[in-house]
Amino acid sequence: MMDATVRPLRIPPEMAIYAEKHDIFHLVQGWVLEAIPKTQEEALRLQEAGITPDHVVMLEAPDVVLIERSSGKRIDPVTGDVYHVTFMWPESEEVAQRLETPSTLMSADLIAKKLQQFHTEAHALKRTYHSCLKTISADQPHVDVFSQVCCGELLKAVSADESHMGELIKPYLESEQQVPSSIVLQILTERLSRMDCTTRGWVLHGFPQDVEQAEELQESNFIPNRVFFLEMTDDIAIERVTLRGVDPVTGEWYHSLYKPAPGPEVQARLRYKPQHSEAQLLRRLKEYWNHAADLQAIYPQAVYINADQDPHTVFESLESRLVGQLPKVLSN
Predict the structure, then answer these.
(1) 144-224 and 35-137 share a CATH fold
(2) Domain 144-224 adopts which CATH fold?
(3) What is the pLDDT of residues 253-271, one digit of tens each?
(4) CB–CB of 240/316 below 8 Å?
(5) Superfamily of domain 225-326
(6) Which of 95, 104, 203, 291 could form a disulfide with 148 if both were Cys (CB 3.0 to 4.6 A apart)?
(7) What are this entry's molecular-function GO terms (predicted)?
(8) CA 219: distance to chain centroid?
(9) Phi, psi angles (nearest 5°) of residue 301
(10) Are 177 and 225 in contact (CB under 8 A)?
């Protein structure tokens, strides 16, 4: 038997549901933020108390970017959702008309004054933590908000090992058949029970695909607190997928319209996957639409994102809903 002290820790999914319901995640986050030294004096007091971090990360961005991100925020007084005039504006005209400037929002001049004070303190903090400091540009998408568990990639990883489950699903993947839901759910729940998913959260892409999978996920108590539907027309989906090819030499993907091959030599050697043909894609789209309405009924609080935009805009829309606190659901 495996020693319990070295056995992988499994935290029941009910724990995450309880923590989300009672705002424990945000409570702990608040404690952590309060403990972060904001001045050199606070940092020195921590050092005197014997609290010295092994690593310090400081996010940096040009002042113009910080001012733009702060002054452009708008809030929906009905739902509490936060929007931005540049990165994320509601598609609904009704929502857009009722947006308000947050009462706590500072003017651009006051933000600039606060930034000047911040730079003075930041310079002193850098000297204090020079031996363990790492600076990161904050003028980019925040891509590491949550651990991502892409269902297809997870199945491929399991099939690559020599476990019983890997051998069980390998024939399905090799023949490009759908892996039975019961097997997928068993693999998925094992992965979501690990410490990183419990403490950092998880993102499922491509699952659930139908009502049966959604119900099985709920019965396992792995209940997503945010659900997104990325919307586009079938014509756009076909255009994006069928015109995409991979260079077998470099592994780089190219697209006839959005990212053409750099030259005729590369273009000539591009390979197109059979499953990306228009006929195959139309079949998969038909399956998707057959299940879409039922899935939308199971997740009435889902967020709908217009995916017929540039990737950065779509990501910013998703990110703003991922990092924001969930609105309170009033009980009857």
Answers:
(1) yes
(2) Rossmann fold (3.40.50)
(3) 899 988 899 999 999 999 9
(4) no
(5) P-loop containing nucleotide triphosphate hydrolases (3.40.50.300)
(6) 203
(7) AMP kinase activity; ATP binding
(8) 24
(9) -90, 10
(10) no
CB burial readout 194-223, b (16+ within 10 A) else e = beebbeebbbbeebbbbeebbebbeeeebe
What burial class does residue 129 get, using C-beta atoms within 10 Å of its C-beta: 0-12 exposed, 13-18 middle, 19+ buried?
buried
Q: Residue holding tokens 């038909």?
A: 286
Q: What is the pLDDT of residues 303-332, one digit of tens each?
A: 898 888 877 788 878 877 776 666 555 444
Residue 312 CA to residue 304 CA, distance in Å, equals 16
CATH number of the structural domain 35-137: 3.40.50.300
| pLDDT at residue 231 tops 80 | yes
Is 204 in contact with 151 (CB distance < 8 Å)? yes
Interval 25-77: pLDDT, tens:
666 666 656 667 888 888 888 888 887 777 777 777 788 777 777 777 888 88
